[in-house]
Amino acid sequence: MIFDWQSLEDRLYEQSKAIIQHFAAEHPNVTCSFFAYDTDPKEGYFLLGFDTLENALCVAQENEQRAIKRRN
Predict the structure, then answer these.
(1) Contacts of 50 (CB under 8 A, 6+ apart)
(2) For residue 3, what pLDDT is reported?
(3) How does pLDDT run across 14-25, given as a tens digit for each residue?
(4) How is the chain split among helix, strand and coil, in percent rounded to 5?
(5) Which residue from 22, 27, 26 is spatially nearest to 55, judged by alpha carbons?
(6) Sign, CA torsion 63/57/16/48
(7) What is the dihedral of CA 2, 48, 22, 34, to 10 degrees?
(8) Which of 35, 68, 65 is nearest to 52 (CA)?
(9) pLDDT attached to residue 33
(10) What was the pLDDT predicted at 1?
(11) Nearest to residue 37, comparing CAs of 21, 15, 67, 52?
(12) Can you say whether the dihedral through the CA atoms of 60, 36, 31, 29 is positive or negative?
């Protein structure tokens, strides 16, 4: 059995593009710092997760505060 990887890649690209455009349209004033895929090949799903600049900075500050407490 030969799997059509190109078809899967094309579908993933097109759906990702649509999701990113939808996110941008719904949140025009939000800066997206990155997006990432989460997958479960056994279940056959792909999720697209987004993070914002504000959230990334908040998490970084929280991590730094925990590191400072550990050092003290």
Answers:
(1) 23, 32, 34, 35
(2) 87
(3) 999 999 999 999
(4) 55, 25, 20
(5) 27
(6) positive
(7) -120
(8) 35
(9) 87
(10) 79
(11) 15
(12) negative
Going by C-beta distance under 8 Å and a sequence separation of 6 or more, which residues neighbour residue 26? none
Residue 62 token pair: 């929280």
**Greatest pairwise CA separation for the chain in angstroms:** 59
Read off the amino acid at residue 66.
R
Q: Hey, CA dihedral for 65, 48, 8, 40, is it positive or negative?
A: positive
Q: What is the pTM of this model?
A: 0.69
Task: Tell me how long the chain is.
Answer: 72
Q: Name the amino acid, one letter, at 51.
A: D
Q: How confident is the prediction along the chain (72 residues), in pLDDT tens digits per residue?
A: 788 989 989 999 999 999 999 999 999 999 888 889 999 988 888 899 999 989 999 999 999 999 999 999
